[in-house]
Design a protein that fits this description.
The protein is α+β, with helices and mostly antiparallel strands. It has a single domain, classed as Aspartate Aminotransferase, domain 1. It is 41% helix and 24% strand. It has a 5-stranded antiparallel β-sheet with strand order 1-2-3-4-5. Strand 3 and strand 4 form a beta hairpin. Helix 2 runs parallel beside helix 5. It starts with 13 loop residues before the first helix and ends with a helix.
Length: 138
């Protein structure tokens, strides 16, 4: 599934994002603010991933992307890549079994295992905050 923002020449603004995400926009802001507070050296930036995928928002520190936020129609996805130590910490944490199962099923690559979570509820936001803490700590 591709971004709701596909025009390479037009970086999404807050008004367009709020309109596109609808009821989930406050969740986006909560996750963005939480990530920037958890990793003070991090910065958020829009990135165009090509005509096939469109615009996404990345929050990165100096070395890596902490979280990817992927806007969709009426919701968004949060994506992570977890290396070995972080993976083990997620599996030992109290995040939902659904997230653990998805991470366990993810194909391992050199940079780690990647997952994408649909963000449509406060419950998911709580788990994402836990994942951000783990990612920042590893």
């Amino acid at each position: 599934m591709q971004s709701i923002f596909m025009d390479k020449g037009k970086k999404p603004g807050e008004a367009e994002l709020k309109s596109a995400l609808s009821k989930t926009f406050p969740y986006w802001k909560t996750i963005e603010e939480f990530t920037l507070k958890a990793e003070p050296s991090a910065k958020g930036d829009w990135h165009f991933s090509g005509a096939k995928f469109g615009w996404s928002y990345r929050i990165s520190d100096k070395k890596r992307v902490v979280i990817y936020l992927l806007p969709r129609d009426g919701f968004f996805k949060a994506a992570f890549v977890f290396g070995g130590k972080a993976y083990e910490e997620v599996m030992a944490s109290d995040v939902s079994d659904e997230i653990k199962n998805e991470l366990k099923a993810a194909k391992p690559y050199a940079e780690g295992r990647g997952i994408r979570l649909e963000v449509k509820s406060k419950t998911t936001v709580r788990d994402i905050k836990k994942l951000i803490k783990i990612k920042v700590g590893n």
